Amino acid sequence: MPLHYLFIFTLLVTDISCRGFKVENRQRQLFLSRNVVTDSGQFDGGVLVDENGKIAGVYTRESIIDLLSEDEGSLEVIDGGKWALMAGGVDSHVHVNEPGRTTWEGYVTATRAAAAGGFTTIVDMPLNSIPPTTTIENFKIKTSAAKEEAYVDVAFWGGIVPGNEVELQNLVKAGVVGFKGFLIDSGVAEFPNVDTDDLEKIFTTLNGTNVVLAFHAEYPISKAKDDGQCEGCDPHVYDTYLASRPPEMELEAVSLLAKYIPRYDVHVHVVHVSAADVVPILEQAREQRIMGGSTRWRGGVTAETCHHYLTLSSEQIPPGHSEYKCSPPIRNVTNKLKLWEYIRDRRIDLIASDHSPTVAERKTSDLMTAWGGISSVQFGLSLFWTEAKARGYSLRTLSHYLSAGPANLVGLRSRKGALKPGFDADLVFFDPDASFVVTPDIIVYKNKISPYMYRVLNGKVMQTYLRGKLIYTDGEVLENPQGQLLINEDVLKKL
Ligand SMILES: *[C@@H]1O[C@H](CO)[C@@H](O)[C@H](O)[C@H]1NC(C)=O
Ligand SMILES: *[C@@H]1O[C@H](CO)[C@@H](O)[C@H](O)[C@H]1NC(C)=O
Ligand SMILES: [Zn+2]
């Protein structure tokens, strides 16, 4: 269905150059939809966007009629009809890998894929690029690689590795959203995991700050075999890999983190929860925090899970297919259903992709040695909606977990993740009734590998807007990157 431009007066955006600054003279816009999705409900109405690409107001259809009669001619009206109008998605967990492993993924391809998937902000993980984002110097290298390549907004996690406590304060000043560390081998040599001595130093350094400390929570317990060791078992069979990373590894890691939570006033976030049983452990820690008077969002104790844990289960994984490999691993259907119970009861805080691509040569059929990581930055909204719709959830649930939750985590709660006045007009038109098949030719990210290949997904991103500007329509990402790096550039320059 084509868009109806009710008023086609001056749609042209004029660039005026004055004293070296580019000032854009933009028209106000009114986005209309029979299905506007906000925190408080879904209704027939619209979103007014000001000249600076910020949301000026959210209206019901009746109040729009008044608005239109007052402002006749001065508004560009973009009518999505039955397409739902929602806040753009925020993906707080994406490995872009540039520079250093740019054959795996890069800013252009990752952010174009995000735009195609209705995600208007991504947050880049500190590892798998070379160098990793663990020092100010490295952060400069990272951000200069990203500059002018961002088709959506990009924020950055810093990394914690043994001995880099001295870098943390400056990285915060320069605008990282928080730090991520590993409690187990990360899979890449340049990003070693931290041990309990390091943790003590890191928590001490960050105590009382607003910085989020995120962890890959698996702990190497003796029962588990290391990757690559597999005596008398078949490394092509998924259960071999699954058995090498049992739920106890996640439970152990989260129990370790839970010991720090009462002693330090630091927001602790657990990324990519697979084993559902970690949720009650974190809840207990949160409860203690809140009873102790913490006013942080969710008591400063949060957890995310990923599309693959909610969509796939180990029983379905065919032998030799490492496109399903990630760590922690995709577990059985009992575990998946438990995660969905927690989603229903709002006991998990957000959902991210953990988009972690590599080249085909590293996705071998030996599941013990193949690269662990699943690419899905482009398909989050549809993956979640396919499962959620079948379970009777509304688009508000989708928006809660894929926009508001991640925006809250990464300090963008007053700017992104909701349709509210003053927020960036990052918008997506989503057709909840359309469906499509994942095929290599629609994949925009660099390496066209996916466990969802040839699956039918429900719900389709029709158009994506960043600060009111169209960035994706009719299956095409528009040229000219419009994304911004969400960092303190002036501070970074001086450090
Ligand atoms: C962390 O900071 C809080 C106050 O913000 C303080 O009560 C607590 O003792 C500190 N923890 C440690 C281990 O120093
Ligand atoms: C699923 O995995 C858990 C933990 O490994 C196990 O206790 C449970 O029996 C499994 N359920 C099924 C249906 O295989
Ligand atoms: Zn990750």
Largest sheet: 10 strands, mixed
Radius of gyration: 22 Å
Which strand-content bin applies to the residues? 15-25%
CATH superfamily of the domain at 88-419: Metal-dependent hydrolases
CATH architecture of the domain at 88-419: Alpha-Beta Barrel
Indicate the CATH class of the domain at 88-419: Alpha Beta
Structural class: alpha/beta
Low-confidence stretches: 1-23
Shape: globular
Query: Could you tell me which ligands this complex binds, including any ions or cofactors?
Result: 2-acetamido-2-deoxy-beta-D-glucopyranose, zinc ion
What percent of the residues sit in helical stretches (DSSP H or I)?
Answer: 25-40%
Number of contiguous helices: 13
Keywords for this structure?
495 residues; alpha/beta; TIM Barrel; ten-stranded mixed beta sheet; six-stranded parallel beta sheet; 13 helices; 21 strands; binds zinc ion; allantoinase; Metal-dep_hydrolase_composite
